[in-house]
Amino acid sequence: MIPSWLKQANPERQPRANATKGGSKSFLEKTIQGSALFLEETVLTDSYSGRAGLLQRIEPRCKLIIILTLIVAVSLCRSPWLVWGVYLLTLIFAAASLIEIPFFLKRVWLFVPIFAMLIILPALLNLVTPGTPLWVMIRLHAPHTFGPYHIPAEIAVTREGVRSALLFVGRVAASVALAVLLTLTTSWHRLFMALRGLKVPALFVLIVAMAYRYIFLLVGIVTDMHMARKSRTVRYLSTGGEQRWVAGRIGYLFRKSFQMSQDVHDAMLSRGFTGEFAALALPKPGSFDYVCCALALLFCCVLVSVDHRIATW
Amino acid sequence: MHIPDGYLSPQTYIPLYGVTIPILAIAARKVKKTLRSRHVPLLALGAAFSFVIMMFNFPVPGGTSGHAVGAVIVAILLGPWAACVAVSIAIIIQAFLFGDGGLTAIGANCFNMAVVMPFVGYYSYKIIAGNTSLTSIRRCIAGAVAGYLALNVAALYAAIQFGIQPLLATGADGHPLYAPYSLAVAIPAMTLGHLLVFGFVEAAVTALVISYVQKRDPELLLLHLGNSEEKEGTIGKFWLGLAMLALLSPLGIILPAAFKSKDAWGEWDAASLERTLGYLPSGMRKIAGLWQAPFQNYSFVGGGSSGIILKSLAYIGSALIGIAAIFLCIRLWSRYFAEKEPK
């Protein structure tokens, strides 16, 4: 039997955790949503790595070498056209790996390249990049100098600024696209296996893989703590009180992780762990993988040498 | 604070890998030596914890919220070496699996957030906290100062890494090829936000977590002593410091280039002295040709026309050769005298 006072709407007693605080989402909501997005992204990534696309077929070690070499080659390029060319190629590879292009675009462009675009805007001007003016925006009476800062009489967008911005955003977008291709087409345990194949110490890879698994457990605990708090919130505490609550949860999480590390250690010892770690042998790459690797390395050499010619030309 | 791919030139990210990997190797060896088999789960859980701290939204006045990096609290609880490995693993997982921070910038990100931040934080905490009781309020204050200081030093390092890009790499017509802002823009842009806002978030998180641990489980504040070798390691620290100084030696050419200044004061050679004074003192003219250094201007490739990266490498090489030469002299010297000592 629900008492009648509980049925009546009383705006002062409405739980506010769902609503906003100071016009934006509450910190509880943000953390819960952040954790949910994190889990969703991981599950989604796993679904792509299982598809029968082109990049999924390449052995993870070779794929890691290919992607890393391409990212390094992109970082060496000085021509915006070639960098954007590599970015367009990643779209073709995404399509060949059965990744939907709208999803791929969203995943790549939010948020790193968009942020790069925003921060590069002032560099279009001759305030940062002096050069041939393309479009004069403001004319001042005289140039000004304040310590190391110089403001010219004509503030203009320069050709060099545009070139530099195109190169910068293109390079960031191409590198992020390549990294996203790697993560979307490789499941985490194959990626860790690839790291081990590249002579990263086995014990280090074991710790990375263990950490990865426990992240999900800890994220689950964080979500539960915030959900429990949200469900019993009638009104917020002062900012100081809320800060103490969040810090308390971080402290609790540390205690829990430390306790868990001891339990895990006991469990490992009882299964015969001596501190040394014997890793399973890695599967050998096939001829298809070697061909892909060779093609990618050749492509990188051609890219860098063509770029060198264009840049000096 | 996570630097993405494309912001740093290879001249920056490769040396930063070169600095970070040996430090990580030393850290892993130290932790393994003190914790034995216990280090595997502790580092794994420590890394997972470091990863998850960054997901907490911390309320700040004005109704909004911010994130903490958390490397300082991890360093205070686990010790700086364990924190170094744990935070690095968190950064590696973020880069490889979640696209947070670039793959080429892992070295730089680990250097800023997993080396500089834990060490600056841990030692400033130790200095301020001293030998106070575990539940002393001074420990909270020490945590706050350590959090604020360490985050700002890490941000300054990131700003310097951004700011030196226009000096290291420009196109044929002088346009910047990587992050375009000079030190004069990058340092204020990066540090102001950290000095005014994020530093206080890190300080509050660090201090309040210490305060929570003091109330619930103060013994945890002693955990870091078991994870580090506080008593030994002075020689190791000495070598580490020396290596850091050698790696920082190219600042001697980068900074003058940045501020468009000339040779260091008092270090002029005969030619530049003649240019400045208008004449060359006769005594100097006599002795100027007496000695030709094997690596003039700390360079292996004659003259100073080579690029700044080659020069930087030559500086580091010269520093290492210099250290090796001094080391060899002292070894030979001490051996000679050790043999002469009466038995």
Oligomeric description of these chains: heterodimer
**Number of structural units classed as domains of chain B:** 2
Rounded to the nearest angstrom, the radius of gyration of chain B is 24 Å
Q: Report the structural category of chain B.
A: mainly alpha
Largest sheet of chain B: 2 strands, antiparallel
Per CATH, the architecture of the largest domain in chain B is Orthogonal Bundle
Q: Please bin the fraction of helical residues of chain A.
A: 55-70%
State the distance separating the first and last CA atoms of chain A: 85 Å
Tell me how many strands of chain B there are.
Answer: 2
Order of helices and strands of chain A: HEEHHHHHHEEEEHHHHH
Strand arrangement, major sheet of chain A: 1-2
Strand content of chain B: under 5%
Order of helices and strands of chain B: HHEEHHHHHHHHHHHH
- Which CATH class of the largest domain in chain B applies here? Mainly Alpha
Rg of chain A (C-alpha, Å):
27 Å
Query: What is the name of the CATH topology of the largest domain in chain B?
Result: Arp2/3 complex 21 kDa subunit ARPC3
If you had to describe this structure to a student in words, what would you say it looks like?
The complex is a heterodimer of chains A (313) and B (343). By secondary structure, chain A is mainly alpha-helical. Chain A has one domain (26-267, 285-312). Chain A is 66% helix and 7% strand. Chain A has twelve helices and six strands. Chain A has helices spanning 4-7, 27-49, 54-57, 60-76, 80-96, 101-109, 112-120, 159-185, 188-197, 202-231, 239-270, 287-312; strands at 20-21, 24-25, 133-139, 144-146, 149-151, 154-158. A two-stranded antiparallel ribbon of chain A has the order 1-2. In chain A, a hairpin with a 2-residue loop joins strand 1 and strand 2 (24-25). In chain A, helix 4 (60-76) packs antiparallel against helix 8 and helix 9 packs antiparallel against helix 10. The longest helix of chain A is centred in the C-terminal third of the chain and has 32 residues, at 239-270. Residues 14-23 of chain A have low confidence and may be disordered. In chain B, strands 1-2 form a two-stranded antiparallel sheet. The N and C termini of chain B lie far apart (60 Å). With 343 residues, chain B is mostly helical. The relative contact order of chain B is 0.11. Chain B contains 14 helices and two strands, in the order H-H-E-E-H-H-H-H-H-H-H-H-H-H-H-H. In chain B, 68% of the residues lie in helices and 2% in strands. In chain B, helix 2 packs across helix 4 (80-98) and helix 3 (71-78) packs across helix 4 (80-98). Chain B has two domains: 10-230, Arp2/3 complex 21 kDa subunit ARPC3, CATH 1.10.1760.20; 253-340, no CATH class. Chain B is globular. At the A-B interface, strand 1, helix 2, helix 4, helix 7 and helix 8 of A face helix 1, helix 2, strand 1, helix 4 and helix 8 of B.
